[in-house]
């Protein structure tokens, strides 16, 4: 594996290998006082974040550091990007400066693919840390790791992905990965927040959350992505007229305590964060033991360690 | 200027090769022509097809403003090499061609270069802002025959109505870039399954079709003439067929790229494939070809839109829309229309030359290949194959979605009023 750009068309065996590596890393680090492995000593990992991020950037940074890589963070403010440098020039600069791997988050769909094209001759690996509305593959991997942990596996498990599917790279990556790993995915959203052609995706589509909850093993809430909603005044709900109001959205698609009780007892609640509490998820639900949200963050570090391992330390075996 | 004999050419690709004598910019004889003396120039046609010179209703020459991507000189050379004898230079320059000073400048630069008749298009509204009519009458007096806010839609129905109505007295045509802006805010690609999967904000077909339908209704209402730029969807072709059937005075163009390419080009995220309106589906392509063959769509126009490398070799959403077209148009029309049997060479003459000249009201272009007619001509070798290399184009910009494609047909020579403006891929000294 040279790059990790998307989960579309991912080989289930390759995905499982990453998840197994992540589980192994988690086990070997658990309870250890010094959480540091020498695996990527001397390797340089650069994160390039062109969108605000807390968990993903920090998670990649910690993952690199626990693997003993040298991690450098570049953000769009405080770098030459602020002076108008193009993405291409920035990427070539970072590769020339010695990056073995660049991890990119960018508001443009396809940015990571473009980067991989530009860096084709440099040997630098590219990891997509979220490109526009396209994909966020490591998020899907950490969601899969969390579900495997909680449910004992993914094959035949039923997962509902609820909310703003249209603007969600998390939803796209999860649909590809979870279905590749044998899960049955149901997308639940108003028609305005579903992508064109979703009827041809390998998923079930529903507009009725209450009807779907009793049969699910997991439910994944998506943030309503106001920053990607064009065509109207700012403000939850009204922005782009995708739905009438935050209140109506919350009534129809928010996971509150009553809805939590519709889920089977073993079912897990996921949210990729950041959460809009009171909108797509009630605070009590987010903080309940049914929610695996902090597990997701914890697993995110191990999954990203595994990804860096497979890209940088494992290349001769999987190339 | 010496008399010129085109030896062994086939007008409209019909009949046996014959000779064509051109004297004083006019076709002086067709048939077996004796040598007229030592001062006669000769082009050896070798059976090539002789057509009326092509007319492009939709070209971006970028001057003034973006001379780093194209100039009137480089664009004129590209046009001549592509077989064109007249081009219409769109108004979205910097400054905008929304006044007589700019349009006269563009026309004068075109005459100075002299490779192709450069007709400036005037803006419909001041600054292309869609808020206030530009001085159409003054620009018409300065020679403008086509008005367009191309790049932007004249989206306000009242302003569009007035533009159509007002233009009636000027013997000009308003060409609409049909795009309802409320439906395309942030749009990046054809709204369909592919763009949705790739996370590219959709440009819905209805945003074009709704404006075309509205404008056809307005044109009929005020009994005015309307031209529709770069038709890109099957639905627009349906709307045009309906409007024409009920007597609307509407004409329409389609670009070569919309006849050939589809949104499967999105998969690489390479912005050489980014264009507005966007590349559509295979079904749209099929229906557009059929509509062009049937005359529902009147003509081919290139929407030749040069862009600098930094505006194309970047991430998709940051890239500017548009592609080069002047030097590939003929070959793509051959590939998409002639080879599948949808158009004869008479048909090529119609869609590349006669109809665009009629729509713009050019009296001396798109004329029959006949004695006494102006010698604005294009000589085409239909059997030649060539591989597209953007770097070899006369345009300053070099990026093209057709890079590396092998295409049929080459321009052997282009004649503007009897003078050879391009021959065998070169501009004569």
Automatic annotation (TrEMBL), chain A:
Residues 2-149 form the Aspartate/ornithine carbamoyltransferase carbamoyl-P binding domain. InterPro entries: Asp/Orn_carbamoyltranf_P-bd (IPR006132), Asp/Orn_carbamoylTrfase (IPR006130), Asp/Orn_carbamoylTrfase_sf (IPR036901), Asp_carbamoyltransf (IPR002082), Asp_carbamoyltransf_Asp/Orn-bd (IPR006131). One of its GO terms (molecular function) is aspartate carbamoyltransferase activity. Carbamoyl phosphate binds at residues 55-56, 105, 136, 139, 273-274. It is an enzyme of class 2 (transferase). One of its GO terms (biological process) is 'de novo' pyrimidine nucleobase biosynthetic process. Residues 156-311 form the Aspartate/ornithine carbamoyltransferase Asp/Orn-binding domain. It catalyses: carbamoyl phosphate + L-aspartate = N-carbamoyl-L-aspartate + phosphate + H(+). Catalyzes the condensation of carbamoyl phosphate and aspartate to form carbamoyl aspartate and inorganic phosphate, the committed step in the de novo pyrimidine nucleotide biosynthesis pathway. Keywords: Pyrimidine biosynthesis, Transferase. Belongs to the aspartate/ornithine carbamoyltransferase superfamily. ATCase family. Pathway: Pyrimidine metabolism; UMP biosynthesis via de novo pathway; (S)-dihydroorotate from bicarbonate: step 2/3. Its EC number is 2.1.3.2. L-aspartate binds at residues 83, 169, 223. Gene3D superfamilies: Aspartate/ornithine carbamoyltransferase. It comes from Saccharothrix tamanrassetensis. One of its GO terms (cellular component) is cytosol. Coiled coil: none annotated. It holds the Pfam family OTCace. This is Aspartate carbamoyltransferase. Heterododecamer (2C3:3R2) of six catalytic PyrB chains organized as two trimers (C3), and six regulatory PyrI chains organized as three dimers (R2). The keyword Transferase applies.
TrEMBL record, chain B:
SUPFAM superfamilies: Composite domain of metallo-dependent hydrolases, Metallo-dependent hydrolases. Keywords: Hydrolase, Metal-binding, Pyrimidine biosynthesis, Zinc. Pathway: Pyrimidine metabolism; UMP biosynthesis via de novo pathway; (S)-dihydroorotate from bicarbonate: step 3/3. The active site is at 303. GO terms for biological process: 'de novo' UMP biosynthetic process; purine nucleobase catabolic process. One of its GO terms (molecular function) is zinc ion binding. Its cofactor is Zn(2+). Substrate binds at residues 60-62, 92, 276, 307, 321-322. It catalyses: (S)-dihydroorotate + H2O = N-carbamoyl-L-aspartate + H(+). InterPro entries: DHOase, DHOase/Allantoinase_Hydrolase, DHOase_cat, Dihydroorotase_CS, Metal-dep_hydrolase_composite, Metal_Hydrolase. Zn(2+) 1 binds at residues 58, 60, 150, 303. GO terms for cellular component: cytoplasm. Its EC number is 3.5.2.3. The keyword Disulfide bond does not apply. It comes from the Bacteria. Transmembrane segments: none annotated. Binds 2 Zn(2+) ions per subunit. Residues 47-233 form the Dihydroorotase catalytic domain. Zn(2+) 2 binds at residues 150, 177, 230. Catalyzes the reversible cyclization of carbamoyl aspartate to dihydroorotate. Belongs to the metallo-dependent hydrolases superfamily. DHOase family. Class I DHOase subfamily. This is Dihydroorotase. It comes from Saccharothrix tamanrassetensis. The lineage of its organism: Bacteria, Bacillati, Actinomycetota, Actinomycetes, Pseudonocardiales.
